[in-house]
Structure formats: structure tokens, C-alpha cells
Amino acid sequence: MCGIVGIFGEPGGKNVKVFTDMLQMDVIRGWDSTGIAVVDKKGTWEYTKNVGLPQVILSDHQVKHGMLGHKRGPAQMLILGHNRAATKGGVSIDNAHPFEHNGIILVHNGTLFNWESIQQGAEQRFPTDSEAICWHISKHGVASMYEKMDGAAMLVWWDDEHGRLNFLSNGKRSFLYGYTEGRKQLVFASEAWFIKGACKRNQMELEDDKLYKVDDHVHWQFRVSRKGRVVGEAADLQPFRATAPIICKGGPERGKTVWNGNTWSDSDQAEWDEQWGIWPSSAVNEPHQAGKLVPVAGTKEPELFTDPSLDVLRKKDIPENIFHKMYDKCTFCKNELTHDYEDAVILDDYEAACGLCSSLSELEGIRMVSGKGV
Questions:
Q1: Strand, helix or coil at 170?
Q2: Residue 82 near residue 97, CB atoms below 8 Å
Q3: Does residue 299 form part of some domain?
Q4: Taking Cα atoms as reference points, which of 275, 276, 253, 256 lies closest to residue 266?
Q5: pLDDT score at 283
């Protein structure tokens, strides 16, 4: 789990205060490292990152009086922050977010399963899946990256060439945003209460008090208009489509087992057997057209997330034996789910809640949120 926060749009005196409040709230989602990127009205960008909590960055003299300070005045068009909980790659400054390749400054919340395929063709092997994503977008474009990306990803990046803020989600990590009055600013974060709390504390009003979620598989690009309003454009993308493993009948991989273009190892086989119990004998690669950016007619607003802090719990749609292989403990109380199939509630592809925790949430009139912040 990682966390993303930021504010984009017309520079203002409250922007830095709202951002720093959100960044410090965001530490509950990641405490291994912190990073900040800033883009001013002229399009000049810079970023800094370090191991540790947000205070390590925010107390730095260059950040406090430079990137976020009075030397710039209220000139920050974009302030983007990330708190990392390390998954792929060790804890280090180099592995902290954001990453930059050829003017793409990117942060990522999630974990990929096939990130080796994302960095094929690179001159170096990247130690994190997030940097591999950044490199691939800068080299081959977002559509090429997205159709190859298997795993969880909420991506936010600045495109220096086109001067756009970008959002892209495959629906496996939470992310929300709202506009200030007059759409002068766009405030975004991994959790709704970051936005609500920081804006209320600093007397920054949200337009109609609404928050929105990013539609799955839709690439959003935002810019500031000449009138100082944040405007967005959306485009559909072709997501990754998983295939079952196959045995190559020719070429350099002849006789080897390959899954989604990656050689299938004994450990991969064990993982497949553990999670699914079978290996389809008739499995073939499913052909699909490469994803293309297809403009959405007009500027379509995404679906309003009426309960912005939480998502709707899914009903179980998998057999009991598979359920127990995928979900062993309750996300909240950590009790075993061995005998709780009928009452347990699936939160997402990785987590579930026992019947008692789900019942308590209903009695108290609340909805549950996954501990991983999906």
C-alpha cells in the first residue's frame, strides 16, 4: 500500500497548506519514504524524495523555503506527493517516488505481477515496478504500457511535453478528487478524508461538496485553461487481458512454458496450483488489439462516488475451495476464515472480512475499508 496526494490548478496561498496537511495524513498508507514534485505556471518542474516520514522532506530548508516556500510565491501549479510502503524493491532514496524519465514524472500506488515484461527493451533493469511503468510510458506511450500491465495500479503523472496532469486507474486502488469553487483547483488523494479534512481545516471550499472517482481503464488528462479553470479530457484504454500458460512449440522458447510473454518457472507453476488448483490443458493465448486512445465525446465527468470514503463490498462469486486458498484471514480482526465462508465478505482480489466484522459494520451504520487501502 502507498498513498498519493496533490493539488493542481490556479496557484493560491492555501494550496501548499492543503497539500502539506494531506501529505502528513497520507503517512498512514506508507512510511518507508516520501517524495514531492512541483510544477510552476511556466511548466518548470522539480522533485525531491527521501527515506522516511513526510517531516524529513517538509523540514528540509530547500523544500520549505524553495519548492514550497516564499521564494516561488504562490506559483505552484501542481504539487504532487507520495508516501511509499515498499513492495517491489528495497527501501532507498532511488526507489522512492516520484520517478522521472524523459519528462514523465510519475507516482504509483499498487503492485504489478509482470513488471519484467514492462521493462523489456530497457538498457537497465529497474529495481521497482513503478519506475518500469514510468520508463515504458516515456518510451512507448501509455496505451502500450497499459495493455501489458498486470496487477494493481493507480497512476498519477505529469507529462512535461504536453503540459498535462494524468490520472489512470485499473480499479484496484482507491483514488478520489474534487474541484474547488469555480474549478480553480483540483484536489486529489488516495482517501477521501484526506481531501475533506485538509480543505476544511484551511477553509478551501469544494465545489458542491462533491468528490469523484476515476473510471476504470480511462485515461484522464487535466490542464489549466486561459480562464484559470481546470478542464479535463478522457480517453478509453485497452486493459491487460490475462491468458493461461502455454507450452511453446517453436522458436527460442521451444518446450518452455510461457505466460503472457514471460517464461513460466516452477515457482510460477506452484503459485498457480496453490491459487487455482488446476492448469487448463486447452489454454491458448487470447489475441487482442493493442489499446488505442479513443477520445470520449465532450468532457464527460466520471461517475459520482456518492460515498467517497468507501467502496461497495462485493458478493462472493467463487467456489468455497478457491475462496479459502485466496483468503486465509479477516483483514480487520485477523481471525482465520476457515469456517466462515457463508458469512464472510470479499473486499477485493486480496482481502476479505469475517461475518462478525461485516455484521458490526452494518450495526454501526458504517462501511468497511480494506486495510490495504484498495
A1: coil
A2: yes
A3: no
A4: 256
A5: 32
Say what the pTM is: 0.68
- HSE, CB side, 13 Å, CA atoms: give it for residue 342: 1
**Does 314 lie in the same domain as 229?**
no
Same domain for 255 and 219: no
* C-alpha dihedral sign at 58, 195, 134, 91: positive
Specify burial of residue 155 (Cβ count, 10 A radius: 0-12, 13-18, 19+): buried
Whether 305 is covered by a domain: the verdict is: no
Q: Taking the alpha carbons of 235, 119, 190, 306 in that order, is the dihedral positive or negative?
A: positive
**Cα 365 to Cα 345: distance, rounded to the nearest angstrom:** 16
**Three-state DSSP state, 6:** strand
171 within a domain of the structure (yes/no)? yes
Greatest alpha-carbon pair distance for the chain in Å reads 65
Residues 6+ apart with CB under 8 A from 42: none
Q: Has residue 371 got a pLDDT over 90?
A: no
Q: Tell whether the torsion through CA atoms of 248, 252, 255 and 257 is positive or negative.
A: negative
- Map 221-256 to HEC letters: EEEECCCCCEEEEEEECCCCCCCCCEECCCCCCCCC
From the DSSP assignment, how many helices (H) and strands (E) are in the chain? 10, 19
| Tens-digit pLDDT profile for residues 297-333 | 333 333 333 333 333 344 455 677 777 777 788 877 7
Q: Is 123 exposed, middle or buried (0-12, 13-18, 19+ CB in 10 A)?
A: exposed
Chain length of the chain: 374
3-class DSSP state of 353: strand
Residue 251: give the domain boundaries: 243-287
Q: What is the pLDDT of residue 248?
A: 54
**DSSP states of 124-163:** S--SSHHHHHHHHHHHH-HHHHHHH--B--EEEEEETTTT
Q: How far apart are CA 321 and CA 318, in angstroms?
A: 8
Cβ atoms 237, 47 nearer than 8 A: no
pLDDT in the model for residue 10: 92
Same domain membership, residue 184 and residue 69: yes
Whether the per-residue pLDDT at 16 is higher than 50: the answer is yes
